[in-house]
Give the backbone structure.
Amino acid sequence: MTTSEQIKPLIPQGETTTVQFKVRSEDAYKMGVEMVAFSNTQGGILIVGVDDKTGIISGLSFEEIQQTNTLLVKSNEAIDDAINFGVNEDTPKNERVNIENERVNSIFERVNIKNERVKNELMRIYSFIEQNPLVKIEIIEKFNKKSKITNKRYIKILKDNRLIEYIGSDKTGGYRIT
């Protein structure tokens, strides 16, 4: 468990990839996105009650602490549901891959891409973004191992088809599934 003595020195340093601030926790989805992002990297600390723009500590009332705890539980349940959708511990690995491929294929049925190779690349990027919410273009480029221009074109296609969106600032934001 992290103590207040461990947290206080982090606040003046500002947000990083492993430390995020929230003034209030009113959205289970956004909290879930932060938790998944942390779990896909080296872990992290979400500090609620600190302004992410100024670093000013506003604190939380007793009711707000209760609300935050409830949202954390809901976020955790939603993450578990998303991870385990159509899958249980008895599902063989090759079947899990087939279930995931069918799900992504069904999403891309409405995307009018005639070139199968490009469509497969788009589906790979989509799945990667889904597993790594708020991922930056530089990380997508490393994952996809294509040129910067090609990756920007792929991102544009996904955005134009309303499959992904960029949220947040240029410095701390990233792409997520819509």
Helices lie at 4-7, 28-39, 62-83, 93-108, 116-131, 137-144, 148-160. The first strand starts at residue 19 and ends at 22. The two ends are 33 Å apart (CA to CA). The CA atoms of residues 85 and 161 lie 24 Å apart.
